Structure formats: structure tokens, C-alpha cells
Amino acid sequence: MNRAVFIDRDGVITDFGDYSLEKRDFLIRKQDIRFFPKTAEAIRLLNQANIEVIVVTNQPQIAMGIITEENANEINEEISRQLREQGAKIDAFYYCPHHPKGIIEKYSFECDCRKPKPGLLFKASKERGINLSESYMVGDRIADIKAGNLAGCKKTIGVRTGYACDDGFKDAVPDEIVDTFYDASQKIAGGDK
């Protein structure tokens, strides 16, 4: 079985900063993609260590009617393309389009894939033959950390970018907190010493 690093997208590899007039904390247009420094280098380190890089992300703006699944896929494809140009490969994207308070009926329900639930990690594990107990979850929110814990990941790592694991929830604690995804990748690719 393979091992993987599961990463959240917005706040971990993409900087949501102030890229939208609405100050939303998620991407809604592919032309607004901005990476944190050394994101491509971080992914390359994992690629070179033969560790799969899998993005697992909540995208509630689909349920809210702000973007469509097609738009979400275009954004993910553009992220992947830009990183490939820098020699970095994301192996797969898994996203949850649901939200219980959404306005698009087919996405408005309590699902098993919206983090902190571990459904996205379970799905990736099943489809890609990933050993969760040898894998990592890296995120900027407590929901990411809790999903990693519930999936049985070897270790959860919080980053100080995005929400910096200070998003108002206290029902999970990362095994470790580092400044950036690059720092997390260095530790993981280096044998987590």
C-alpha cells in the first residue's frame, strides 16, 4: 500500500489573503490562485520521497451557489497545471461540495465527506490503495486535524498559514504545528525526525 500526505487547499497551499472583494476564505476564480512561498518545493520534496500528495478540501461555495462543480474542477486543474510547470505533482484532488445550509438542494445535506468527517480520506485510501496509518494530514483548520485523527493518520500537522489552527474549534489538537507546508514537507520527506 502507498503512503500519502493529505493536504488542505485554501490556507495551506493557496493563500486566500484578500484575493476576493468579498474577503471569502476560498477561491472562486482560477485567476486568483496565489501560492504560499515554497509550495512547489514542498510538493517536489514529497514527490521525490515517493509519497503521494492528495488535496482534500471542503468547497462549500458549491452548495452556496457561488460556483459550480465545473468551476471547482477548473480551479483544481489550474492549480495542478501551475505546480506541474514548477516540477511539482499533486496526485489527486478530492473535494466536498456539500454544506447543510447550502442553497443548492442537491448539495444541501449533512454528508460523510465534509471535514471534520474523514470521508474524503477514506475515499482516497480506497481508490488509491493508501495506508492511512502511514499517512499524514496537513491543515490550517481544526477540521483538517480532526479528519486526519478520525481517519487514523500516523500524524497530523497544523500550519501557521491560513487559519493557523485557530479557527475557534478546540475538539482536536495537531500532533505538531509548523510555520508552513514547506516545513511540514521537509519533516515528512526527511523521515519525520
Summary?
With 193 residues, the chain is an alpha/beta fold. The chain has a single domain (4-189), classed as HAD superfamily/HAD-like (Rossmann fold, 3-Layer(aba) Sandwich). 28% of the residues lie in helices and 15% in strands.
Protein architecture, described:
The chain is of the alpha/beta class and about 190 residues long. It has one domain: HAD superfamily/HAD-like (Rossmann fold, 3-Layer(aba) Sandwich), CATH 3.40.50. Helix content is about 30%, strand content about 15%. Strands 3-2-1-4-5-6 form a 6-stranded parallel β-sheet, with helices on both faces. Strand 1, helix 1 and strand 2 form a beta-alpha-beta unit. Helix 1 runs parallel beside helix 5. The chain is globular, with a radius of gyration of 15 Å. The two termini are about 20 Å apart. The relative contact order is 0.20.
Cα end-to-end separation? 22 Å
> What is Rg?
15 Å
| Helix fraction by DSSP (H/I, runs of at least 4) | 25-40%
What structural class do you assign from the helix and strand content?
alpha/beta
CATH superfamily: HAD superfamily/HAD-like
Number of helices: 5
* Major sheet details: 6 strands, parallel
Order of helices and strands: EHEHEHEHEEH
CATH topology: Rossmann fold
**How many distinct domains?**
1
Beta-strand percentage? 5-15%
Mean pLDDT: 93
* Extended strand count: 6
CATH class: Alpha Beta
Q: List the uncertain runs.
A: 19-23
The CATH architecture is: 3-Layer(aba) Sandwich
CA-based shape: globular
> Which strand order does the major sheet show?
3-2-1-4-5-6
